[in-house]
Amino acid sequence: MNAYETTNHYLEQAFNLLKLSDRYRTLLLTPTRELRVEVVIELDDGSIGHYIGYRVQHDDSRGPFKGGLRYHPEVDIDEVRSLASLMTWKTAVIDVPFGGAKGGIQVDPSALSRRELERLTRRFVDQIACVIGPTVDIPAPDMNTNARVMSWFFDQYSRRFGFSPAVVTGKPPELHGSLGRDAATGRGCLLALREVLGAEGKSLAGTRVAIQGFGNVGSWLSRLLHESGAKVVAVSDALGGVFNGDGLAIPALLSHAQQRGSVVEFPSASPLSNAELLQIDCDVLAPAALGHVLHVGNAREVRAKYVLEAANGPTSAEADQIFNERGIVCIPDIWANAGGVTVSYFEWVQNLQNLKWSEADVNASLERHMVAAHRAIKKTMDEHGCSMRAAAFALGVRRVKEATDLRGLG
Ligand code: GLU
Q1: Within a 10 A sphere around the Cβ of 222, how many other Cβ atoms?
Q2: Quick one: which H or E segment has residue 66?
Q3: From CA 29, how far away is CA 85, in angstroms rounded?
Q4: What pTM was computed for the model?
Q5: If you average pLDDT over residues 12-37, what whole number do you get?
Q6: Is residue 99 a contact partner of residue 63, using CB atoms and an 8 Å limit?
Q7: Is residue 291 in contact with ligand 1, taking CB distance under 6 Å?
Q8: CB 97, CB 345: distance < 8 Å
Q9: Is the pLDDT of residue 39 over 90?
Q10: pLDDT over 70 for what percent of the chain?
Q11: Does an H or E element contain 277, and which?
Q12: Whose CA is nearest to atom 8 of ligand 1?
């Protein structure tokens, strides 16, 4: 199964739990719009660079389309479709008034200069400008895109349509971004883990966690776990990983990674590969990078008791089944990593009102959303006697279906 088939498989499980008719299956599975653009730019040496970009708008029954923008060589229509659909259920589970969308450009951004990246972003904005807008579709950062890319995005859109900070979220705080947005996805993951452990009478203190991925989400998650007294025993990035059974010195590791561009060769830790990280003895495994890293070929080797899905779609359907059989609890992406879009919502609200919230207010509101979603997921689990993932999908689907029914097909 590819990424899109996996997402649809989880949706089918939810449709079955809710006993939905075929009418809804078609309505909820079908994306509203798929835009493909050829992004052609001039490179620094005068030659022409040609990249394929996408924006898939899955559903907007509950509010404007919302979702990130990813720059990665493996971006393709199936991946973007899957990620757009996941956003629909994520915004519903966390209960922010948005639908779901995703965009991406098939490009290796590390091969481009800063100026080339800027031209690529501005060209892409021009090409998708006809389908986005502050009340229509609001992009945000995702893999390999950041606050700087969102600044160019905001600027390019505003040149054409006038001052429009609410057209994109994840901007820097100096340019109408929200305080707390950078940390938000990692903070949401931490809160999800805290709630799940807390419901079983456990706490974060002393919990041993392995994190795959040390980008925005993985690095913030490691920092916040460390501050909460958890032991981050292993982390990795695209170049490799490091392990220390007593817990890695995260503040030192963060500066090491910043200086060297990677966690590898961090002193007082032993090296390990990405594949080994997934199989180490720990309480919590947090995939925080690419999709489908947990699959039929390695799911039986996972020794963690919990899989905290900081990435989007890290677990294949087969691996999910194996985890269920083995009693490994998957804390599903559409709740676990919803902190980012939740604070994107706060940013959008601040932009529309020309207000600025304090970081304490942002974090407190994020916590309320994460805790309320956990309560709703647990209730759904009890009702259906199902896994946390099946319950999260059922909850999201039920909320989107209700909105679809109320609006009518016209
Ligand atoms: N890219 C993030 C996600 O996958 C954030 C999306 C947003 O803030 O709109 O949830």
Answers
A1: 28
A2: strand 65-72
A3: 8
A4: 0.97
A5: 95
A6: yes
A7: no
A8: yes
A9: yes
A10: 100
A11: helix 274-277
A12: 341
Structure confidence at residue 410 (pLDDT): 65
Tokens matching residue 18: 């809710």
Active-site annotation holder among 66, 90, 102, 401: 102
For 264-322, give the DSSP string.
Answer: TT-TTSEEE-HHHHTTSS-SEEEE-SSSS-B-TTTGGG---SEEE--SSS-B-HHHHHH
Residue 339 CB less than 6 A away from ligand 1: no
* pLDDT surpassing 90 at residue 268: no
Please give, one letter per residue, the 3-state secondary structure of 67-124. Answer: EEEEEECCCCHHHHHHHHHHHHHHHHHCCCCCCEEEEEEECCHHHCCHHHHHHHHHHH
Can you read off the two tokens belonging to residue 42?
């001039």
Contact predicate 303/281, CB 8 Å: yes
Domains, the chain, in order of start with CATH, read 33-171 (3.40.50.10860), 184-336 (3.40.50.720)
Widest CA span of the chain, in angstroms?
Answer: 64
How remote is the C-alpha of 284 from its chain's centroid? 18
Average pLDDT over residues 403-408: 94
Place of tokens 């992009």: 139
> What is the mean predicted confidence (pLDDT) over 87-94?
98
Residue 45 confidence (pLDDT): 98
Average pLDDT, the chain: 97
pLDDT at 274 over 70: yes
CB atoms inside a 10 Å sphere around CB 296: 12
d(CA 369, CA 19) in angstroms, rounded, equals 27
Nearest-angstrom CA–CA distance, 292 and 15: 23
**Per-residue pLDDT averaged across 93-108, rounded?**
98
Q: Inter-axis angle of helices 77-93 and 359-384, to 10 degrees?
A: 90
340 touches ligand 1 (CB under 6 Å): yes
pLDDT at 409: 79
Query: Does ligand 1 come within 6 angstroms of the Cβ of 169?
Result: yes
The protein residue whose alpha carbon is closest to atom 9 in ligand 1 is 67
Instruction: Please give the pLDDT value at position 1.
Output: 87
